[in-house]
């Protein structure tokens, strides 16, 4: 929890914040040619200190999460805006900057699309994650810049369709300002981390972001359809699956966000009603939009395919998980595990409060659940540490939580509660 006096101080800082309306060097032209890119590479190679990096995507408009604009800034080089559509291979720039510390805000969001064009950092500073470890009450870029540096960034274009060409001047100004003060923010947070004794923790976290392999593709991604909980039989689930896969194929072909082809609510409604004719389909409330009707033949074909599947080909109602069951079932299925979970949550919450950070940054909730469900036979700090290490916890986290968790579990056992 953030102390009340810190919240007041932050609010006062916001009131005194100065609007940042123009980049100090103006809005640079968008780099779209190899010749202009070579000049940017030379300039950034000659620059000094960390390089601020940001990327703009077209989430909700286009299929996938590719970058449609990349912004950079470095002392001695100024700011640059690069069009990765016109220049899809930025590996030469990536090579030049590979050993330079790259400063990103919420790095996990941008690193995949940067890697697609050849920009893969070896050193990272994540200003959002630093803010979380320091206990800042608001860690969005705008809030961090206001509360730490005293400037107000322009808002309003983060959710824009960045695949638009040409990009409007106002959008480009917004994009440049996103990296205008990112290195200065990094420097201020670095000083805070050092003063609070959390710098080594942050460095471990940044390294983990770079070294943790990407998650494998989801099994049956169609099961993430919003509202699928309303679908209660396997035949209807098959309709969800077939329509979802049809939508995904169309979305890829048209390079559109799947939700712009057909909304999740429409998929669920098709599963529940299973229309057989265009008239029945068009009568559904979620199928009255132009986008939904444009591919009505494809939707009907998908529904028909699901309807005709043999029972053995229908999806199971639930997939077996690789982890513990939902926590709300623990008290009935394993009361001892439920008590361990309650004790572990209390330990982690108390330590997170002591060190002024969110509990999930001290230890991932999934790790707390897995440890509580399947603890080691030997409830020693060393054994707890081994389990947490296998679950991906960093050394600084293990050093803080292993001993208190072991004590909590042993205390339950000694009381005869386990």
UniProtKB/TrEMBL annotation:
SUPFAM superfamilies: HRDC-like, Ribonuclease H-like. One of its GO terms (biological process) is nucleobase-containing compound metabolic process. Residues 310-330 are annotated as: Disordered. Residues 233-313 form the HRDC domain. GO terms for molecular function: 3'-5' exonuclease activity; nucleic acid binding; nucleotide binding. It holds the Pfam family DNA_pol_A_exoN. SMART domains: 35EXOc (SM00474), HRDC (SM00341). CDD domains: RNaseD_exo. InterPro entries: 3'-5'_exonuclease_dom (IPR002562), Exo_C (IPR041605), HRDC-like_sf (IPR010997), HRDC_dom (IPR002121), HRDC_dom_sf (IPR044876), RNase_D-like (IPR051086), RNaseH-like_sf (IPR012337), RNaseH_sf (IPR036397). This is Ribonuclease D. The lineage of its organism: Bacteria, Bacillati, Actinomycetota, Actinomycetes, Streptosporangiales.
């Amino acid at each position: 929890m953030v102390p009340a006096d810190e919240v007041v101080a932050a609010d006062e800082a916001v009131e005194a914040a100065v609007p940042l309306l123009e980049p100090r060097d103006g809005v640079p032209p968008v780099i779209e040619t190899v010749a202009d890119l070579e000049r940017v590479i030379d300039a950034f190679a000659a620059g000094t200190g960390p390089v601020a990096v940001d990327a703009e995507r077209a989430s909700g408009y286009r299929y996938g999460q590719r970058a449609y604009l990349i912004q950079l800034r470095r002392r001695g080089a100024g700011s640059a805006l690069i069009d990765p559509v016109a220049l899809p291979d930025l590996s030469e720039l990536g090579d030049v900057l590979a050993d330079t510390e790259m400063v990103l805000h919420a790095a996990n969001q941008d690193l995949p699309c940067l890697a697609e064009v050849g920009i893969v950092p070896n050193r990272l500073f994540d200003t959002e994650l630093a803010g979380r470890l320091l206990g800042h009450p608001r860690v969005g870029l705008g809030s961090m810049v206001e509360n730490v540096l005293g400037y107000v960034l322009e808002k309003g274009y983060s959710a824009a369709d960045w695949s638009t060409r040409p990009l409007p001047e106002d959008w480009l100004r917004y994009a440049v300002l996103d990296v205008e003060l990112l290195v200065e923010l990094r420097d201020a947070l670095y000083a805070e981390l050092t003063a609070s004794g959390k710098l080594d923790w942050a460095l471990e976290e940044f390294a983990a972001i770079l070294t943790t392999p990407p998650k494998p593709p989801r099994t049956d991604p169609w099961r993430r359809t919003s509202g699928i909980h309303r679908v209660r039989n396997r035949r209807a689930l098959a309709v969800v699956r077939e329509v979802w896969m049809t939508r995904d194929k169309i979305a890829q072909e048209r390079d559109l966000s799947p939700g712009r082809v057909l909304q999740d609510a429409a998929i669920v409604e098709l599963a529940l009603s299973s229309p057989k004719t265009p008239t029945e389909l068009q009568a559904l409330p979620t199928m009255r939009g132009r986008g939904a009707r444009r591919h009505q033949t494809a939707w009907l074909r998908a529904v028909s395919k699901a309807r005709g599947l043999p029972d053995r080909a229908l999806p199971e109602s639930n997939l077996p998980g690789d982890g513990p069951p939902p926590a709300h079932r623990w008290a009935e299925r394993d009361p001892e595990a439920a008590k361990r979970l309650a004790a572990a949550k209390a330990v982690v919450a108390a330590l997170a409060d002591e060190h002024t950070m969110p509990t999930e940054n001290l230890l991932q909730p999934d790790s707390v659940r897995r440890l509580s469900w399947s603890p080691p036979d030997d409830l020693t700090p060393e054994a707890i540490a081994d389990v947490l290490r296998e679950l991906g916890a960093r050394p600084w986290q293990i050093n803080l939580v292993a001993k208190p968790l072991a004590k909590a579990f042993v205390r339950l056992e000694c009381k005869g509660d386990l």
